[in-house]
Hints:
By secondary structure, the chain is α+β, with helices and mostly antiparallel strands. The chain has helices at residues 18-25, 28-34, 120-146, 166-177, 183-195, 198-201, 206-213, 217-230, 409-413, 416-421, 448-455, 457-477, 497-516; strands at 6-14, 41-42, 46-48, 51-60, 63-69, 73-75, 79-86, 91-102, 108-118, 233-240, 247-251, 260-263, 268-271, 278-284, 307-313, 317-323, 330-334, 339-343, 356-361, 364-365, 381-387, 393-399, 432-446, 481-486, 489-494, 525-538.
Amino acid sequence: PMALPRRYQVWKEVALPRAAVWNVLSHTERLNRRVGLSPVSYGDLQTESDGFFRPARAKVAGFDLRWREYPFEWETEHRHTVVRVYEKGPIERFEGGIELEDAGLNRTKICVFADICARGATGAALVPVLARQFLQQTLRFCDEIFDGHPNPQPRAPRPARRDVNGPLLERLTLELGSRAVPVRYANALQEFLREAGDDEVTDLRPFEWADHAKIERHEALRTCLHAVKCGLLNLRWTAMCPNCRVAKAETATLKTLGDNVHCEVCGVFYDLNFDRYIELRFAVHPAVRKAKNDVYCLAGPFRARHILKQQKIGANQSAVLPIPRANTELRVRVLRSNRRLTLTENRADGAVCSPATLVLRAEGWSDGQKPLENAVSVAGGAFRVENQTREAVLVVLEKTQWDEQAVSAAHVTSLQEFRDLFSSEILRPGRQIAVENLVLFFSDLSNSTALYERIGDAPAFGRVGRHFDFLSEHIRENGGAVVKTMGDAVMAVFYRKEDAARAAIRAQSEFPAFRATMSDLENVNIKIGLHFGPALAVNSN
Length: 541
């Protein structure tokens, strides 16, 4: 029989709201790095009647530890826990995490805890030492990152100086600053590549970096694109699961993308989609910095920030899930079986709601199950989930809104600058990928045939070419890209509707002044059409 668990815990109160504390302590990957835990090797997902787990192993205090790691459970801004059941070593079972409580106006009480079952006499002697060491390191981390910091961020440990090739970094930064990139952005990237943690520079998301550095997102993306051409960064395409939003595959070029990807956690195969499922990321070039891409935590809350609550419900058991305030659509989903229901908001008065009930059976949600009538997106709402299956399930309450910090393939391939810099980044011939929403821009010159007849082919061709330059400038300045020209027509693409509309309006309003620079264009006008909707990305020739 397994020994009884012993609880180890420490408390700390900080002068910060719960949301700010959660933002740091929910990033279990960087927390584990900062408190000195060892990197972990994870195996493939396995299933048992009590749920699913991943086999894992790590070297800790000279012991080769192997364990089953069960999925994290958490409630955003309140708590997170994880369970590990060990095969051998001084520990039999570990369950630990954090709990947060309000402690007054903009103050939070933090509890770091671990319930540990020791194995044998060796475990009984070592576990208290290891537990106290872990808790003390966590407290030191909290002291360092929270005290005196109004907006703390979950930063990873700084790299060793020997891992950064300083002279090469300096030289390539100067080269980057000499390109069409503001010098301060080149310097900001240099500082990031020199000071950020290994996991940050091996998985650089430009919009996330921009938000943390308080710089403009588009310029940050441009800086990263030019940094690839300078040799500071490498480019990566990452296939994201549409449900859990976690990276499932990656490739260095669009040509090697497969047709679909499998997510073992969500239990789905999905076709790749340019809008959401293919994300552009970057990694520091190995010649600039030696960064290890070790894993310290695979499935903490930080990897699925759209999930507000994740909870295990045993066979023939039930649980009440509270609904936090959210300004977006929410849904409840069962992992692996991927059963989903959207929560509808039928009330706006913010009153406390009595729990509605959802019944899960082997075939799915009970017949006639409707979206929750009493569960609304306000603080105080709640609903009950009854698991009438023979196995434990993992239920999540999540936002349906996609990650705004992701740079999708549809977004970046609609930028003229990307097409100019990476003309070889194309899909393999015959490969088609859906784009849920994109804006196509078409233009046409009226009376152009009469212009050719009136002034001759060569002069008219020159006028049409200048008009292409005029339109291309407006398209580029407003975040679009020219796909092709044909005759006197332009086809361009935009990722955002407002950018396409702005480009069209400005081109129309400024065309009379452009036309006035050439005396023989008095009867020529420009016509522009926009279409927003689904499209296919394809390399046709």
